Amino acid sequence: MRLSAGLDKIFRPKSIAIVGATARKGTIGREITHNLISYGFTGKVFPVNPAAEVIHSIKCYPSILDIPDEIDLAIIVVRKDLVLNVIEECGQKGVGGVVVITSGFKEVGPEGLKREQALMERVRHYGMRIIGPNCFGVINTHPDFVMNATFSRTAPLEGKIGFMSQSGALGEGILNHARKLGIGFSMFASVGNKADISGNALLDYWRDDPATQIILLYLESFGAPETFTKIARDITKIKPIIAVKSGKTTAGARATASHTGALAGYDIGVDALFDQCGVLRVNSIEELFDLAKAFDQQPVPKGNRVAILTNAGGPGILATDAAAGIGLDVVRLDPKTIEVLKANLPPEAATGNPVDMIASATPDQFEMALDSLSADQNVDALIVVFVPPIMIDEMGVADAIIKTRARTDKPYLTCFMGPGEGSAGADRLKAAGIPVYTFPEAIANTYKMMVKYSSWQKSPAGTFPLAGPGVAEVRESLVKMSEAGKNMVLGGEALDVISKCGIPVAPLWAAKDMEQAFNLAEVVGYPVVLKLEAEGLVHKTEIGGVIPDVRNDTELRKHYKTLMGRAEEKQIAGARVVVQAMVKGGVEMVLGMVRDPQFGPLIMCGLGGVFVEVMKDVAFKLPPLSEEDALEMLQHLKAKRLLTGYRGSASMDLKPLTDALLTLSRLVEDFPLISELDINPFVVCADGAKSRAIDARIVLDGRAV
Questions:
Q1: pTM, whole model, 2 decimals?
Q2: What's the rounded Cα separation, in Å, for the pair 259 and 247?
Q3: Residue 93 contacts residue 64 (beta carbons within 8 Å)
């Protein structure tokens, strides 16, 4: 059964009962009743209140059971101690959907949680669907189902945006701000405690709704991240999802034993989740609406090349700095475009990019310049910055922008600065569907996000490799270690585990004495690496327990004694020296995994070796990883040029690295017993056959056996 099953009873009801309706102005029950009627709900409305006979000129019923007609949707606005009884009556009546406005449930603590659990037992018993409790209500603006079942003072405009808010308190502000911006909604839902219907259910519902072309989310928590990923991946290929996620998530309050755990700080899981399913994350409600009005009113740009047109030098420079500073291409204009501009603008005008027509620019010159820039094949999108001089016809400039935008498929975002803010010209642009911003920085950020979405839509769906070898053998090894009480697997044992899964490792052997170390070095071939290894010895480099590039027997003798001396000095019981083949000429990377309490496993890749926690140049994603996901992780790294070559240096063969990431992704999905894992370093070489994992660390969670 789909998550959205039964939601028509809530968003497309033919009859609504308001349980707790009153005639007293200022009460929630009265305002919801009033909004339903005044907004034009065409179905039947039934106020329910045992203390009233008539409310809002409509017959009132003592209980929902007394209503003679069938009821699709019940809006519940009674005291928290009465809600359970009302839910029972709704079930007996055969109500399909319920919206519980009342608060006082799990959001207030343990007693409220018990109250909510009892409520949900009744809801499930009767097969109803519920939004809330502790919510602001729901809206549908479609003419066939028009309904405002909220207690908002602001009547929403009809539009193509579905908005889900986890916060009821934000409802009034969202609806009011959207109306001022001229933004309309297809549907609006305040989900409150998400006892039943969550953001995932609404996404599933809006996925196939033709009236909903853009989805906005205000989130405070995730209930089922895996489900969100699957649904959102499908939706964002056809319609954008823009989200504000408040609150922070950490990778766990306990101390971590891995580099990955130390680096998986606040909000890593949210960013990884959104990136992998094409959701555009913004930092504030203001940015949410900046982006929403652009997607609502303009086409998505085909690329990141922008042209900037202004009548004021300073604002033009601001726009240029903002655009270039976040990665947009303030493109070189076609010479033919520049010729047209020079022929029609005063000599003082700047005809490069940005194009500064100077303060005396007329509406006709704006129209000419905009037509020329729109026709330029080097330009994907236009930024228009207008500072209204007292002698220029502001309305004429607005009309020039409107006329030229109608003649192109390229998006326009505009900025009316100074006296133009909220002016008649700006209002005319808004009415014509051309977004107006107060400052150019907001335009640059908006275009950046639109370009990101355009790239996501064009990107391939991704291929997910099948499970690799060694699964059964690895499971047996890990279970034995855990049952023996071992919670940390280090060095050779850890390398053996990942080797069985198909990740190449640099071979190493433990020496019981110096003589055996000589023999092992002869087998491996100089140069070798000597390492201290002991049960529980995690950070070997911090105590000088790793000596690379040992080239002969003399050096081996010296360094062997040094390492054993350090073990004695640090009182490391059971210490031994291991001899490992040395991998030369590559880039040291780190691969890892940590389990976030909310999002599950997070896969990490970044610059490794001793620099991992100093540089903190890492990228995170959630499994399962596709081949495209693995390559994208590398693209996000500042150190990617070390891998791809710079100043004549050789580029590294990335396939062993991406293959290792994919194997790691499968490994952590197959084995919930692994709570943390580091492969550090994984040396990536120009000759892929030489790439190897040098060291590894696995933390086990015995509870998952």
A1: 0.87
A2: 24
A3: yes
Please state whether beta strands 158-165 and 214-219 pair in parallel, antiparallel, or not at all (unpaired): parallel
SS3 content of the chain, % helix, strand, coil (to 5): 40, 20, 40
Nearest to 562 by CA among 581, 543, 537: 543
CATH topology for 299-458?
Answer: Rossmann fold (3.40.50)
H or E element, residue 49: none
Cross-strand bridge partners of residue 147: 140
Q: What is each CA distance from 247 to 277, 279, 289, 435, 600, in whole angstroms?
A: 20, 17, 20, 30, 18
| CB-based contact 261:251 (threshold 8 Å) | yes
Give 225's strand partners: none
E strand segments, 432-503: 436-437, 488-490
Contact at 8 Å (CB) between 468 and 688? no
Tokens read off for 25: 């102005």
The per-residue pLDDT for range 174-226, each reduced to its tens digit, is: 999 999 888 999 999 999 999 999 999 999 999 999 999 999 999 887 778 88
Closest of 206, 275, 283, 209 to residue 244, by C-alpha: 283
DSSP characters for 295-329? Answer: HHHSPPPSSSEEEEEES-HHHHHHHHHHHHHTT-E
> Does residue 623 contact residue 665 with C-beta atoms inside 8 Å?
yes
State residue 206's pLDDT score.
Answer: 97
Domain ranges of the chain: 8-220, 299-458, 507-582, 587-704
Instruction: Give CA–CA dist 528/530, Å, rounded.
Output: 7
CATH topology of domain 507-582: Dna Ligase; domain 1 (3.30.1490)
CATH class of 587-704: alpha beta
Long-range pairs of 429-433 with CB within 8 A, sequence gap ≥ 24: 429/398, 429/401, 429/402, 430/181, 430/182, 431/182, 432/402, 432/405, 433/297, 433/298
pLDDT band at 121; cut points 50, 70, 90:
very high
Report the amino acid identity of residue 641. Answer: R
- In terms of residues, how long is the chain? 705
Quote the distance between the C-alpha of residue 348 and its chain's center. Answer: 46
User: By three-state DSSP, how is residue 381 classified?
Assistant: strand
Condensed to tens digits (0 to 9), the pLDDT of residues 531-567 reads: 888 887 777 877 888 899 999 999 999 998 998 988 8
Whether 507-582 and 587-704 share one fold: the answer is no
CATH class of 8-220: alpha beta
- Judge contact between 190 and 137, C-beta under 8 A: yes
**Half-sphere CA count of 469, side-chain side, radius 13 A:** 5
For residue 26, with 0-12 CB atoms within 10 Å meaning exposed, 13-18 middle and 19 or more buried, which class applies? Answer: exposed
Token pair recorded at residue 100: 């519980």
Q: Is 405 in contact with 429 (CB distance < 8 Å)? A: no
